[in-house]
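Sample A.
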Amino acid sequence: MDYMVVYSSRTGNTKQIAREIFSALPGMSKDMQSIEEYTGKDADTFFVGFWTNRGSCDMSVIDLISELHGKKIALFGTCGFGGDVNYYKAIEQKVSVWIPDDCEYLGTFMCQGKMPMQVREKYEIPMEDPTQETWRKKMLQNFDEALFHPNETDFENARVFVNKTLE
């Protein structure tokens, strides 16, 4: 098989991006599975997707990436905090380090994704320290912006990522 898309998605954001990546892959020699369904199907190129928690991916993704040898690997992920290229690069560094040395790393696509309402509820509670109020309001603003992601622009950027990756 030419391509395998494997993803871990907690809230459905990464699954949406996985579908876009899968649809952008050429030909018929491709498959897509959630990490829970993945049974070890082999492929030349893997697109591995993850949701972000505290700046990295979950352990199931680390286990999968670490076991891929001699493959081409592209990563994609979603996170609640969007628009910060430096944050995306930090996530990429933390996740790509698990790619074995005998693999070819093809790059990472990241985009913002909506978060569970419990996250907003946490930020709605005023801080005891008044100097933290600016930060809290910024977190609420980010949460509200994330409600609209992933969106069509994110989907298009994911498809562009696939095309550039395969060039």
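Sample B, a different protein:
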Amino acid sequence: MRRDRGQAVIEYGGWLFLLLFVSMVAVQVGLAVYAAQQAGTAARAAARVASQDQAQTDPAAAGRASISSWLSARIAPAASGDEVTVRVTVDIPSVVPGIDFGSATKSATMPRDPGRDGD
């Protein structure tokens, strides 16, 4: 019986590590989904502004204003003919230091205002 004294503590530590690992994976997946959703929101907002004839703001500024301030985003509008497409790339934050989880990229296309010239 004396040899079994620390067994419960070791088992508890093993399960605790496993539960923390599963929790971190769940949070990381949630952050990846959230970053992808925010990229889509920024792309739609920037495309909406870029398609307007007399926009009051810059499309990139509109895209950045529509997402959480703690996210890093790259916004690239491109006009072609009667439509404008905006591609937004949001870096996925990491809950594990030193590991890069990449980025989420979304794009949105909107028709340009009919009165807008082909600038």
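Observation for Sample B: The mean pLDDT is 88.
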